[in-house]
Amino acid sequence: MREVYLDNNATTKPLSEVREAMMRVMGEDFGNPSSAHSAGDRVREAMVVAREAVAQLVGAEADQIVFMGSGTEANNTVFNSVVQRAPMGKRVRIVTTTVEHSSIVKMCDYLGGKGVEIVSVPVDRCGQVIWEALDEAVTPDTDLVSVQWVNNETGAILPVERIARLCQSRGVLFHTDAAQAVGKLPVSVTELPVDFLAFTAHKFHGPQGIGTLYVRSSKELLPLLWGGSQEGGLRPGTENIPGIIGMGTAARLRLERLKDVQGFMASLRDRFEQSVIAQIPDVEINGDSDMRVCNTTNLLFRDVNGQALVARLDQEGVRCSQSSACTNQRPEPSYVLRAMGLSESEAYASIRFSFSEFNTVEDVDETVAHLARLCEQLRRFSRRRLSLLAEVG
Ligand SMILES: Cc1ncc(COP(=O)(O)O)c(C=O)c1O
Question: Per CATH, the architecture of 16-254 is what?
Fold first, then answer.
């Protein structure tokens, strides 16, 4: 059976150029960049090229790029640093939103339990942060504001530029989790007064297990780990060379083709949405259909058991998901959709489809055909179940 992979916000398939570049540094071009001999030199040189490519993807200087083990680690490092650097006796105050990725939500839960003041600003039905609440929350004694650039479940684009300027005007550090933004929309830290920006290679056809933290000024960051002087001491430990080289290759290729890929993914997503809405009754788009990243749609199939629909699509070869990859093993409704005001049953009936440059028009049309048939079957089944229950009751 042909696989139709529409879960690209969970992870993307590495490009063949990425795999080949990684294989080279795991083969004849291996080495430890800390070594003072030629094997070390060749790896150091390859790292310089990769770092430059990753920096260019976000408009940064190469020395502002810190390679880490994941987007999760990059996010955690910022929060940990802010808490560790706070003056003795100061109650740390962090402002964030209710729709962040679990790597931030869980960190905030943990820090909240240790006495840190966490203010989670609500969002509206479109998944947009409520500006007045944010404005009020960012007090001069706030130590960090952290707001995601693009939501992983709905694709909503948050107003990070406006938030960055607000934080700058109040002298507050600003971090953005840009894991779902980088590689899907133009990102330039030269035009955005952001202090930290986290992203991860596997969302734009790089390898898993390699993330990057952009750090405007290294004076503002304490490392999470302690050890050698790798990454300027900000991320000690022998570098993940295959990962770094793979991320550099993916970054270079994505930057070269960003506009085309963006347009292509948007055309597939729009075709998919229009066909679904035309062919299947009672389907709604969750979130803002304008302020949205190019590859994502989150659809509410009224009166359909979303978990069953994901499983039935999987049997047909179509991969998609409910909520995010880090949380969707749990049979709980998406906290992101709940924060946007959807009821529990609406959240359970919602599914995310996320496209990549590898998808095709055939993928879209085949998935819509499966969806039309499966929604009809599942709705018939649930109507029958309800009428049986009514008879018994
Ligand atoms: C918005 C967002 N932030 C952070 C992460 C975490 O990245 P990683 O998988 O590299 O830990 C993800 C990935 O799922 C994400 O979508």
Answer: 3-Layer(aba) Sandwich (3.40)
Query: pLDDT by residue (tens digit) across 169-198?
Result: 999 999 999 999 999 999 999 989 999 999
Q: Which pLDDT value is given to residue 324?
A: 57
Active site residue 167: no
Domain 4-11+258-392 is found in CATH 2.40.480.10: no
Return the ligand 1 atom nearest residue 325 CA: 14
- From the candidates 108, 126, 326, 375, give the one annotated as an active-site residue: 326
The finding on whether 148 has its CB within 6 A of some atom of ligand 1 is yes
Residue ranges for the chain with pLDDT beneath 50 = none
Domain regions of the chain by residue span = 4-11+258-392, 16-254
pLDDT score at 65 = 98
Residue 16 to residue 22: CA distance in whole angstroms = 10
> Of 24, 346, 311, 9, which is closest to residue 152 (Cα–Cα)?
9
Cβ(179) – ligand 1 distance below 6 Å: yes
